[in-house]
Amino acid sequence: MKFSDIKGLGPKKASLLREMGITDVDGLLDHFPYDYEDKSRLVPLSEVIPGQSGTFHLQILEKGPTRYWGGKGRTTQLNAGWEGEICKIVYFGDIYTPRSLKVDEVYYLYGKAQREGGKIVLYNPEVLPNDPSSLRLYPKYHTIRGLRQKEIQSFIHQALQHTQIPEILPQEYLNRHGFINRGEAYRMIHEPNGFAEILESRRRFVYEDFFRFGAALRLRKASERGQSVGAVSTGRQMLNAFLARQPYSLTGAQLRVLEEIMGDMASPEPMNRLLQGDVGSGKTILAICAMVQAAQAGYQGVLLAPTEVVARQHYEKYHQLLEEFGFSVGLLLGATPAEEKMQSKEAMAKGDMHLVFGTHALIQEDVSFHRLGLVITDEQHRFGVKQRSALIQKGLYPDVLVMSATPIPRTLTLTIYGDLEVSVLDELPSGRQPIQTHALSLSYQKRIFDFMQREIEAGRQIYVVCPLIADSERDLRVHSAQRVYDRLQSHFPRQISIGLLHGRQHTEEKKSLLDRFHSGDLDILVSTTVVEVGVDVPNASVMLIYNAERFGLAQLHQLRGRVGRGSHASHCILLCGSNSSGVRERMKLMQETTDGFVIAQRDLELRGSGEVLGTMQHGSISMRIGDFDRDQEIIEKVKEDLDELFHLDPLLERGDHPLYREYIYSVFEGKMSDKRLN
Question: Which runs of consecutive H residues, i.e. helices, occur in 283-400?
Fold first, then answer.
């Protein structure tokens, strides 16, 4: 069935569906319900529980007049009953439905019943088709303004009736796990004949989600085996000399992970490793070590950072020392002047620039490399699959290292990344002071300001983070960076210097502010979340966060990690504009632990895996129904089946695999380049 063949789906409705990301019949079928209304159970009036919804079989006994209440609307009242019980029906605003109800006729009405003065009252009940088959579960879909539930239900019903749905999973796995066929699963999830069918169809689709996701990543890994930029030299003289120039020694965890990275880089196959470590655990220096090792072997290395602030900080911290070792080091940002950008691109293409730090500007089509051998992605969850892949494909099977300070439980990590090797930094550098976290209401501002002044007088510096740049007319309870900056300026004496940093400023202005904060010229830096990752000022001892309830737990943990980097006692103060039970629970967790793994697990439960892991970004894989945290039992089955499948057929080349091979490729938009899967 074609999209255009669906009755009632004209250009306007099709445009609304496109806004929801639905562009064809397959998209309609994959638009799964988020809930169901149970209209299957007939509730006798004698068994009404106030506030609960149900279906009622009622005869209309009497219709009252429609009453108009000035500008307040209109109401129509009817009396109805069944088997000796009487109830009142009231419609507000809607005069058409009560007109369609005829006295002495019997109807199925669905709604929420109340008891008022000893009488049962139904407000604005829905009239169901006068047929026992209408007593069933009805799906509820996410929709947008202009598109009603009944319309989506109708479109999907037509798609189910007139579409041939092929099976894409291997038959042996269907038999092994007792899964229903794909066409029946779609029928059961959209038009179930009971909750048992919903559970059965969901189980099959959860398996399918994780099967295609895991298989796509394994297929990519399998396609790379035996392909490499060439074994990187195992000599470490230059690397050892570089480490000797650092002002600190690596921790035991860093040394262990460094050995894992070096082993990968010496292998004839491309490295594909996730470096996972909590805030402040020392991931960046290991990334720089990998860049040194690649460059000394004659390859180019790039580090893709999530923001210009982070990219510039990495560059400024390391470029001088790297250049002393004979490497040409560049910085490529979106805000880089055109002439300088052109020169950098030419140098990268010729191989004259060995190591490059940058942002999304590195992904542009006109950026090329002479011999790209190492790609490092910092804060990998900030980038979608397509974005990471676009940079990787600028080399020929380069080594890949992705870093994340958003810790993910190991079982979940292995599930998401398939055969990706995982290194975990589980030790903080020595000398780090524990961070004390305090969750307070806005009424404490004056006392907090006094504490900030004492810290500044002791020689320390302070971050103040706000969720918005400027005030929002919609909600003045949300503190903006501009408003807080103005207040601090008026509160503190002039000798206390305060800066305002946000994403709308020009690159040079942001650079100047960060340089001043690094040098100690600024006592307080008021900012938005542009300081969330990568900014390293050991003298900063206080992180004050306004409207902390508006940030995710992982984000609060990242912000907290900007302090506690020196030898001074440090504090994170969470100012909350809400005292709801949910906010109290989240702030309590932040006060009780600084363990990023515990916080990440809780954040996963509260926000869902898509947001935490970055899988909802452009060009990424979306789970229709699978949940990484809830579906671990099915995930284990998927892993066992994929182990078996890829052992027998590493590239899915056998003739009995064409349908799901094609489906797996569609996860990455159906494209397989000569180098790797997009």
Answer: 283-296, 308-324, 338-350, 385-392
Separation between Cα atoms, residue 403 and residue 423, nearest integer Å? 10
Give the model's pLDDT for residue 659: 66
Q: Which amino acid is at 484?
A: V
Instruction: Calculate the CA dihedral of residues 72, 78, 80, 85 and round it to 10 degrees.
Output: 60
**Sheet strands side by side (includes 524-527):** 435-441, 570-576, 540-545, 461-465, 524-527, 498-501
Which of 179, 207, 201, 205 shows the shortest CA–CA distance to 188? 201
- Token couple for 420: 């990706």
Give the model's pLDDT for residue 224. 58
What backbone phi and psi angles, to 5 degrees, belong to 148? Answer: -85, 155
Rounded Cα distance, 551 and 361, in Å: 27
Tokens representing 535 are 């900014």
Please give the DSSP secondary-structure letter assigned to residue 298: T
Q: Which helix H or strand E contains 209, and what residues bound it?
A: helix 195-224
Q: Which amino acid is at 71?
A: G
Burial of 396 (0-12, 13-18, 19+ CB in 10 A): middle
> Would you mind telling me the total number of residues written for the chain in this entry?
678
Find the farthest-apart pair of alpha carbons in the chain and give their distance in angstroms, rounded: 96
Residue 540 token pair: 């900063």
Nearest alpha carbon to residue 302 among 228, 353, 365: 353
Q: How many CB atoms lie within 10 A of CB 512?
A: 15
C-alpha to C-alpha distance for 259 and 261, rounded to whole angstroms: 5
Residue-level pLDDT at 169: 87
Calculated CA dihedral for residues 104, 107, 110, 115, nearest 10 degrees: 20
Cα separation, 337 vs 518, in Å, equals: 24
Place of tokens 């019997």: 106
Q: How far apart are CA 284 and CA 273, in angstroms?
A: 14
Return the structure tokens found at 173.
């796995």
Q: Pick from 491, 492, 566, 502: which is nearest to 530 by CA? A: 502
List of the chain residues with pLDDT < 50: 230-231, 411, 610-621, 668-678
Helix (H, G, I), strand (E, B) or coil at 614: coil
Indicate the pTM of the whole model. Answer: 0.61
Report d(CA 61, CA 205) in Å as an integer. Answer: 47
